[in-house]
Automatic annotation (TrEMBL):
Protein name per Swiss-Prot or TrEMBL: Nucleoside diphosphate kinase
CDD domains: NDPk_I
Keywords: ATP-binding, Cytoplasm, Kinase, Magnesium, Metal-binding, Nucleotide metabolism, Nucleotide-binding, Phosphoprotein, Transferase
Pfam entry (one): NDK
PANTHER family registered for this protein in UniProt: NUCLEOSIDE DIPHOSPHATE KINASE (PTHR11349)
Enzyme Commission code: 2.7.4.6
Phosphoserine: residues carrying this PTM: S122
Function description: Major role in the synthesis of nucleoside triphosphates other than ATP. The ATP gamma phosphate is transferred to the NDP beta phosphate via a ping-pong mechanism, using a phosphorylated active-site intermediate.
Cofactor dependency: Mg(2+)
GO molecular function, one term: nucleoside diphosphate kinase activity
Subunit and partners: Homotetramer.
Amino acid sequence: MEKTFLMVKPDGVQRNLIGEIVQRFEKKGYQLVGAKLMHISKELAEEHYGEHKERPFFGELVSFITSGPVFAMVWQGDNVIKVAREMMGKTNPVDAAPGTIRGDYSVQVGMNIIHGSDSPESAEREVNLFFNESELVSYAKDINKWV
Ligand code: RTP
Ligand code: MG
C-alpha cells in the first residue's frame, strides 16, 4: 500500500490546525499509520530539505521548520502521494486554490502550513528519515465499507 510523509509545520501547530488537517485526510479515506509531535533538529531539517540547500531561502526555511514543534505523520492509501499534494494546494498560497489546505489557511510561501512528499522516491526517503519501522503501525481498516 502506498505511503506518504506529511507534516504540519510550526505555523500550523501554533494556529491549532493539527486536528483540522488530520480530519481532512481521515474524511478523504486515507489511513494514519504513524504520527508524532516533535522538534526538528537543525541537522534533520538540513537533510530533509537537502534538495534546496543552494536556494536563497534555505537558511530561512531551516530556521522556520526548527522554530517550534511539528506534527509528523505517515498516511497510507491509493495514490496518497499525489492526492495529498492536491489536497495541500500549490506551494505559494497565492496560487493555492480555495478548498486546499494552503488555499484555505495561509497567505505566505514561507509559512504554508503543511509539507508533503512530492514523489514515490521522496516519500520513501522522508518516511524513513522521520520514522523507525517500529513507529509505524499496521491495522485492518476496510475503508470501502465506510466511505
Ligand atoms: P514542501 O516541501 O514544504 O512540502 O513544499 P513544496 O514541495 O510545495 O515546495 P518546495 O519547492 O519543496 O519548497 C519547500 C518550502 O520552501 C519554502 N519556499 N520558500 N521564499 C521562497 O521563494 C520559497 N520557495 C519555497 C516553502 O515554504 C516551501 O514549502
Ligand atoms: Mg517539497
